[in-house]
Recover the amino acids of this structure.
C-alpha cells in the first residue's frame, strides 16, 4: 500500500493527523517522504483495514528507492543515479531516455527559476539536484530560457513532476526535456544527496535512464569513476555562441532610454541572455563575440567597454586563450567589467590565481558584503571555482566577500578601469540589489567619453 492509499484509508490528512497526534503539515511531509515514521505505526494499526504488512510495504518501497542495499532495481524504478564512489540512488526517469550522462553532481537551492537554471551555460558538465521539492509545477515557456539549449546534463528531484499549472506555460517540463534530449530522475532522497554534497563536496556521477529498462551497475560505476571531473576542463568552446548583436532589454524595463549608448563588446564564455538584456537596459549597444575571440578581434570593433560573461568549468583551462585577450584590452586602456567566470578570468589576467571550492555556491539566496559601502546584497550564484585573494597583487583590491564562507566575491584594479564580481547581478534575487554594477560600468564609459570631448575641445 502506498502512502496516498494509506492516508485515504485512515480517513484523510486531518483524520490521520488527529489519530497520530501531529499536524497536517507533518502529514504533508510524510506524503512527500512516501512513508510514515515507525513511531506512529501503533496508532495506525487501530484503523480497520491497515495492517503491519501495509506499513512495512510503504517503508520498504521508499527505503529501496532512496537507500538501496543491492543492485536489483526496486519495484517502480526506471532510472538510477550512480556516484563515482559506488553508491547509487534508484528513482523514476522522465524526459528523454539516455545511455548515461556523466558529470559533476551539484545542488541548487533556488526555489524558483528551474528553467533558467537548466539553460544557464555555467551548468554545462553538471547534473543538478534541486533542493526545492516541487520542480516542474509551472511548466516551461519560450521566454525563460537563458540560452538556446539546455546546458545541464540532467536533473535530480524529490517529487514526480506534475502537470503544469501556470498561465505562461506552453510545454510540460517532461516534454521540454525530451526536446532537449535530457533526462531527469524523481523519487530520490534529495536531502540525503544535499547532505552528502555538503559534507564531501561535488561528486562525479552518472544519470542513467535506459529505454530497455536494463541496468548493469558494475559498468555504470566504472563509467562514473573514470570521468576526469571539471578541474582542468575547458567547456567554453562548447557553450559559446557565434558573434552577434544584441538589442533586447530586460522585462518590464522602466528606465528611460538613453540618447547616447555606450558601445560594448561582450565576450561570451557561456553568457546568460538576461546579462545581455541588463547591459542594454543600462544603456549599452551590445556586440557579442565568442569567448575565444582574440584581443585584435575585440579591439577591431572599437569598444568603449568590454564585458566578460559567466561560463562553465575551470577558469585555469579557459585562461590559456582568454587571459591574453583580456590583457590586450586593458593595455589598450579599455574599461572592463566581469562576472562569474569573467571575474575569475579578470583575476588571472591581473596576476591572481583561482582554485576549486570544497562546496560550490549555487542558488538565489547568497549574502555578499560590499566592502566599499558596508551594504549586504542578496545574490544569485553559480560557481565551483573561486579567486584566491592571497594571490592577488598589490594593484588589485578586494571589493566584495561572501558571508557564507569568506571567499572572494569581487575585485577591482587600482591602476586600470577594471572590476568584477563573482555573483550574478542580472539575476535580481534582491530583486535590484546589484543592478548598480551595470550602471557603474556605464558611468565609467560616460566619464571616459566626457574626458575625450573635453580634450578635443581644448586642443
Amino acid at each position: 500500500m502506498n502512502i496516498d492509499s494509506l492516508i485515504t484509508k485512515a480517513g484523510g490528512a486531518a483524520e490521520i493527523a488527529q489519530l497520530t497526534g501531529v499536524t497536517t503539515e507533518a502529514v504533508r511531509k510524510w506524503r512527500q517522504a512516501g512513508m510514515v515514521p515507525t513511531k506512529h505505526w501503533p496508532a495506525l494499526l487501530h484503523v480497520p483495514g491497515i495492517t503491519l504488512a501495509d506499513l512495512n510495504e510503504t517503508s520498504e518501497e521508499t527505503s529501496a528507492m532512496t537507500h538501496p542495499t543491492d543492485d536489483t532495481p526496486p519495484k517502480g524504478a526506471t532510472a538510477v543515479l550512480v556516484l563515482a564512489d559506488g553508491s547509487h540512488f534508484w528513482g523514476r526517469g522522465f524526459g528523454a531516455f539516455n545511455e548515461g550522462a556523466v558529470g559533476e553532481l551539484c545542488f541548487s537551492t533556488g526555489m524558483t527559476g528551474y528553467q533558467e537554471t537548466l539553460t544557464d551555460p555555467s551548468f554545462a558538465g553538471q547534473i543538478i539536484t534541486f533542493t526545492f521539492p516541487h520542480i516542474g509545477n509551472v511548466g516551461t515557456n519560450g521566454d525563460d530560457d537563458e540560452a538556446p539549449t539546455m546546458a545541464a546534463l540532467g536533473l535530480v528531484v524529490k517529487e514526480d513532476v506534475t502537470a503544469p499549472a501556470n498561465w505562461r506555460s506552453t510545454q510540460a517540463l517532461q516534454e521540454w526535456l525530451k526536446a532537449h534530449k535530457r533526462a531527469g530522475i524523481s523519487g530520490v532522497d534529495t536531502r540525503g544527496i544535499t547532505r552528502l554534497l555538503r559534507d564531501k563536496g561535488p561528486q562525479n556521477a552518472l544519470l542513467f535512464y535506459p529505454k530497455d529498462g536494463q541496468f548493469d551497475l558494475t559498468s555504470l560505476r566504472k563509467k562514473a569513476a573514470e570521468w576526469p571531473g571539471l578541474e582542468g576542463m575547458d567547456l567554453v568552446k562548447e557553450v559559446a555562441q557565434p558573434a552577434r548583436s544584441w538589442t533586447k532589454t530586460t522585462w518590464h524595463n522602466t528606465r528611460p532610454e538613453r540618447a547616447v549608448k555606450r558601445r560594448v563588446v561582450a565576450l561570451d564564455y557561456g553568457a546568460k541572455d538576461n546579462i545581455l538584456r541588463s547591459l542594454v537596459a543600462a544603456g549599452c549597444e551590445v556586440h557579442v563575440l565568442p569567448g575565444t575571440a582574440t584581443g585584435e578581434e575585440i579591439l577591431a570593433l572599437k569598444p568603449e567597454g568590454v564585458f566578460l560573461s559567466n561560463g562553465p568549468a575551470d577558469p585555469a583551462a579557459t585562461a590559456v586563450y582568454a587571459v591574453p585577450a583580456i590583457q590586450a584590452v586593458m593595455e589598450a586602456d579599455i574599461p572592463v567589467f566581469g562576472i562569474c567566470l569573467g571575474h575569475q578570468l579578470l583575476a588571472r589576467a591581473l596576476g591572481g590565481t583561482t582554485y576549486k571550492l570544497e562546496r560550490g555556491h549555487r542558488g538565489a539566496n547568497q549574502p555578499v558584503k560590499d566592502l566599499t559601502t558596508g551594504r549586504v546584497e542578496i545574490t544569485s550564484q553559480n560557481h565551483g571555482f573561486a579567486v584566491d585573494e592571497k594571490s592577488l597583487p598589490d594593484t588589485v583590491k578586494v571589493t566584495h566577500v561572501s558571508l557564507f564562507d569568506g571567499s572572494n566575491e569581487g575585485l577591482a584594479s587600482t591602476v586600470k578601469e577594471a572590476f568584477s564580481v563573482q555573483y550574478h547581478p542580472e539575476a535580481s534575487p534582491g530583486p535590484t540589489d546589484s543592478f548598480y554594477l551595470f550602471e557603474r560600468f556605464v558611468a565609467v564609459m560616460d566619464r571616459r567619453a566626457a574626458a575625450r570631448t573635453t580634450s578635443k575641445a581644448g586642443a
User: Anything to note?
Assistant: The longest helix spans residues 436-458. Residues 347 and 423 are 14 Å apart (CA to CA).
